[in-house]
From TrEMBL:
Taxonomic superkingdom: Eukaryota
Pfam name, any one: SET
Keyword Metal-binding applies: yes
The entry's keywords: Metal-binding, Zinc, Zinc-finger
Name of the protein in question: SET domain-containing protein 5
Segments for region (Disordered): 248-267
CDD domains according to UniProt: SET_SMYD (cd20071)
Stretches assigned to the MYND-type domain: 16-63
Molecular functions (GO terms): zinc ion binding
Species this chain originates from: Echria macrotheca
Length: 588
């Protein structure tokens, strides 16, 4: 609740909203909120602090919405000069402003979308707006919508007025940051601006938007300061941009300004040692034979971040800094010694995190820094696999095939079914290197074959996973999973891909009531999972419970087309006959 003391002169008077006595104090939270279309908000008066307190529960919702409206107008008042300083309009302004907008809108409790509009061709544009407009569409509480026009007239306009006056139609509508995300390589000034925004956020205690809430005078001072900071920084920004351009990659795809990979402090264990690996900086190398399925390492994260902060570098940085402050000197030192692929692009700690973070779960957006595991290099034919073990609260690294002494231990940084070009693109843009592993350095003909297999694998995975085929055409789906297993073997992929395919086959069987086949597929899935992540992983345990009781899966009996009890797994068949039964080759 805001006090009734505002920095506005108290010339008006009205009736106290609580007791109806004559009053001159206005609620400082919503006083002077701008009108929305034709509706001008009434002023809320109080005769005393007590009355204001008593009335708060009735006034709260309206007051908060009006405060948000005020803040939105302030956002516009900051964005306009910032946009002018960065000197671009339209889509380019949207890309350049993305980091700033993400921070300034954060905490405002509004939905922001990036919208492109055009004037309709059969109408005369009476507003003087040019043909294409790039705007932020901002919705407060689902019931009032505003436009912040990046090509022209600030302050915000109510959405419907704006559309009508400019005779505009919507061409595309996307979430905030969409146009920035669509650009795979940012221009140097944008990258440098991201850095600048991060520093400003840090200077504002992690919340750039906080100053939107202060008095008019404070807000104006802070705005001037922010704009001056950006203006003053533009010279440096341009110089930095030049440096970034100059620091392009060398022949190996490594950034020329990459650090010199100082030796790690970590002690060698019985199984591996962290040491220099030619052309890759540091890496993890086996010191003795490591049999398939061995847990090479289990490690708790030194630092973690929640997901979804990729475009809020300032916030991201604050979260990491706070945790770094709590670490002991040696651990902090080891964090700073990790490789940074984003030098000069992001502030150092954000760059180190982005280069080294590993996911805390399958496809999780939360990430963690592991001081040992972060030294493991990539191979598209990896011999080890990283998984998050929720029960232990640790990352585990398992050998997915036998590893010989002296061999480098590798994990994969990319999705297994990606083509050669997709893999190289991801590794080059995200990690600054070109992969020359066995799969990537195969002959062009072999690579073409491999890409065909991978494309087919991706298609099959999509078809099996769409949820329709497993009940509409289960046999075809089952055979698709068999084709996937065959392709994986041909592609000589590591164990890591097998559990998900066996699990698809399990789902086809169980959705159609066949507990016997489902049990066999669950067993195979479990066996692969144990190799990849151990038997103490939550997911492995769950699959084990499905081996014991396949019918406990939620899809059980979606149809009963293949109804069969779990105990019906045949035990008197040879290997070939068993496979033939399992895949329903013959009418068993
Ligand atoms: C998570 S770190 C791995 C450890 C890193 N090599 C080090 O020295 O700390 C990721 C970085 O390692 C390097 N890297 C990883 N795999 C590589 C590979 N297969 N070839 C070349 N460089 C690689 C790249 O510089 C990448 O940005």
């Amino acid at each position: 609740m805001k006090s009734t003391e505002s920095d506005e002169p108290r010339s008006e008077c009205g009736r106290c909203s609580s007791c109806s006595k004559e009053a001159t104090n206005r609620c400082a939270g919503c006083v002077d909120a701008p009108a929305y279309g034709k509706s001008t908000p009434r002023t809320t008066f109080y005769c005393s602090g007590q009355c204001q307190k008593a009335h708060w529960s009735a006034h709260k919702v309206e007051c908060k919405a009006l405060q948000t409206r005020k803040s939105l107008h302030r956002v516009a008042a900051v964005l306009a000069p910032v946009r002018d300083v960065i000197g671009v309009e339209g889509k380019q302004a949207m890309v350049r402003l993305a980091a700033f907008a993400a921070e300034i809108f954060d905490g405002l409790n509004v939905t922001v979308e990036e919208v492109i509009l055009t004037t309709t061709s059969d109408t005369t544009d009476t507003s003087g707006l040019s043909k294409t407009r790039h705007v932020y569409k901002v919705t407060i509480n689902d019931d009032e919508t505003w436009v912040l026009d990046l090509d022209g007239p600030f302050p915000p306009w109510p959405w419907s007025d704006y559309i009508r006056r400019g005779c505009l139609k919507v061409d595309s509508i996307h979430s905030l940051g969409f146009h920035r995300r669509a650009v795979s390589v940012l221009d140097p000034i944008t990258r440098a601006l991201v850095f600048q925004v991060a520093s400003m956020v840090t200077a504002h205690g992690g919340k750039l938007g906080a100053f939107l809430k202060g008095s008019k005078a404070t807000f104006q001072d802070e705005t001037n300061r922010l704009v001056e900071e950006i203006r003053g920084a533009m010279t440096a920004v341009k110089a930095a941009a030049k440096n970034i351009t100059l620091s392009a990659s060398n022949d190996n795809g490594q950034p020329l300004n990459a650090p010199s990979h100082a030796p790690s402090q970590s002690p060698a264990t019985g199984l591996y040692r962290i040491q220099a690996v030619p052309g890759k900086g540091q890496g993890m190398v086996a010191t003795s034979k490591i049999p398939r399925g061995t847990r090479i390492l289990s490690e708790a994260p030194a630092i973690t971040t929640p997901g979804g902060l990729e475009h809020q570098i300032g916030r991201f940085q604050t979260i990491i800094s706070r945790q770094l402050d709590k670490l002991d000197d040696q651990t902090r030192h080891r964090f700073y010694a990790l490789h940074n692929n984003y030098e000069g692009v992001f502030p150092p700690i954000a760059g180190i995190f982005k280069t080294n973070a590993l996911p805390l779960g399958h496809k999780a957006s939360e990430g963690g820094i592991f001081l040992e595991a972060s030294r493991i290099n990539h191979s598209c034919k990896n011999n080890a696999e990283n998984t998050w073990n929720k029960t232990l609260g640790k990352l585990t690294i398992h050998a997915v095939r036998d590893i010989q002494p002296g061999e480098e231990i590798t994990i994969s940084y990319v999705d297994a079914f990606k083509s050669y070009d997709e893999r190289q693109h991801h590794l080059q843009t995200g990690f600054g290197f070109s992969c020359d592993c066995e799969r990537c350095s195969a002959s062009p003909a072999e690579r073409r074959h491999s890409d065909q297999r991978l494309r087919r694998l991706a298609t099959l995975e999509k078809e099996v996973g769409d949820g329709v085929g497993i009940v509409a055409t289960p046999l075809s789906c089952l055979w698709k999973t068999r084709e996937m297993l065959r392709l994986l073997r041909e592609e000589v992929m590591t164990e890591s891909c097998f559990p998900r395919v066996y699990f698809d086959a399990f789902q086809v069987a169980i959705a159609n009531g066949d507990q016997a086949r489902a049990r066999v597929f669950a067993e195979r899935c479990y066996a692969s999972r144990v190799v990849v992540e151990g038997d103490d992983n939550e997911d492995s345990r769950w699959v084990k419970s499905l081996v014991e009781k396949p019918s406990s899966h939620r899809l059980y009996g979606t149809t009963m087309k293949w109804k069969q009890a779990a105990k019906k797994v045949p035990c008197d068949l040879g290997e070939e006959e068993f496979e033939s039964w399992l895949w329903k080759d013959t009418p068993w």
